[in-house]
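User: ok so my PI wants both of these folded by tonight, can you help

Assistant: No problem, let's get them done. Here's the first:
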Amino acid sequence: MGSCFSARVKAESLPCNGVNTKYAGRSGNDRSGSSSKVSSSTVPSTPRTQGEILQSSNLKSFSFNELKAATRNFRPDSVLGEGGFGCVFKGWIDEHSLTAAKPGTGIVIAVKRLNQESFQGHQEWLAEINYLGQLYHPNLVKLIGYCLEDDHRLLVYEFMPKGSLENHLFRRASYFQPLSWNLRMKVALGAAEGLAYLHSDKAKVIYRDFKASNILLDSSYGAKLSDFGLAKDGPTGSKSHVSTRVMGTHGYAAPEYVATGHLTAKSDVYSFGVVLLEMLSGRRAIDKNKPSKEQHLVEWARPYLSSKRKIFQVMDARIQGQYSSSDALEVANLAIQCLSAEPRYRPNMKEVVKALEQLHNSNNNDGSRGSRGENPRRGHRSSSNGPAYHRKNVNEVSNGKPTSHAGPCVSPLRT
């Protein structure tokens, strides 16, 4: 069984004038409350042809010239980032007609342009449309439309102004300030809600590439999952797993999936545990610049996570004093459960959401934890009555400014 864990980004990336920062974001107001639930058949479980996928999606079909005008001819200074799929450009469209607009007017968008030599990229382009053209949830990025013209393959998303979680955790540039404890917990909860929805009977989707670079942040640090190029329909009937070629990102993929190619929702739970550990520690899942014993975050941190005295050796020094030891241990314990070697011992994402919500509620009752008085859930819809999700249609975009997200972070980056 083949593995596709690295290097591909180098071979498939379009030259974007030397830009190598990963795009992360879209902007805009949070979701509206006028959502109707979708049925469990929103994403058909049987394989569909390209024509069927494009015809059934509720997305706008853009012409290449429209997107060329919206991005000012894909100017180099419009590049937001690049990855295995290609380059992502910033652009503007009118919020009602969705036609190209002058810079600084209308809606800001992110336009992801496929490397024309990439067959795998085409499959991921189609997967994005298949899933994001059918599903809507406050914690999933919003896809506005696509372009299929001659050899051109493009995807159009709303722009996420705060970029990716990866940038905020690991970049030391002055533009990216370290996220506070409260904001990290807000992001963790939002990302968990997105995964929980994907795993629910409403969607039955396995994400397969959960990582910090695929979590995009809107203007209020609301988390949205991006990049559905590797997503798969979950098992149906009596099947316990999906057998597939091993693909993903080294350091995040569940060990049993890497070993067997058997994909389940618990594979995503493991990846969530890795990202949760990244948020606690401020360290990357894999960091070759660290001493050899510290290069693999999960292996290095595991012995410290269950000890009240040792946990602080793992915690990010930049957020020292912003949390209580009990909160740190509680989140560390959740990470331990998600990272269990045996999938059956891992919680499901609904349970993870509940644990993070309880932490939030406990902090609200105490009223004294966290830093700068930030509310981890401010501006975020509570999921106590279930999150909002529904079928999307083009009119949703034209009736007001779209919700925030970003072209999935150009992220078939599998390194």
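One down. Here's the second:
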Amino acid sequence: MDTTEDFSPYRADGKLYGFVCVVTGASQPVGQAIIEELAAHGAASIYACDKTASPTSYTTLVTRLSHTQPNTKIIPYPFDVTSEDATLSLLDEVLAAFGRLDVWVCSSGLLGPASIHDTSPDDLARCFEAHSLAPFFALKHAPAAMGKLMEEEKEWGYPNASPKRQRYGSIVVVASVAGGYGGCWGPAYTMACHAAMGVVRAGVKVLKGSGVRINAVSPGQVDVGVDLQGVSFVLYCLGDGVEEKGVWLRGGESWCEGLVLTVILLG
């Protein structure tokens, strides 16, 4: 697949110029860091999704990016990642408004109880929904939207609009090193993160021949300010700089699929 023109890292306007993106978990530091990186690389539009999002959400982020990346449109979008109907509605809205979809980032998650004795079946179900059901819906439905092409001659009327000549897209799951071994937090969190990795690995076969790829970023041990409810523990989560790895997975100059990129920050 020759996508040199679309993905050139040497473009002055950014290697993701024209891309339309969805980022879940946008109210958390992880999601906001990813949104900033996507904007810095020229994305045309980013749906900043969170269950409680409203037009006034992320005011600081939106204001800052309006000055540094004025051609990137940030859209706060209320979204339930565990709902298949909500996923389909979001995809319909993206295609109606922008005509294409290129990137879907699953960065929402849930810790669950720290102790197995405090973990109910409902707690376990909620963790599985947040960590594995959300990327499953993305894998199931986003590739069809990513396969839509943009007509060169059509005027879409938004900044950074760009033709899409070939079918491609990228699904990135922001997971945790808990998806590779235990002991990072409670059992529900570890089990759900392993399930998320299962979605990524299953997706390799599902997406074969579609032009869409799926990968995961499994961050190392970094405190991002999550309330651990008095438990003395440092959460395995995303830290400064890791968002750049996610953009690398979304770019086109290096094709990889089913990759789980483990990132541990030292110092």
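The chain has one domain: 4-263. Residues 231-249, 263-267 have pLDDT under 50 and may be disordered. Good luck tonight!
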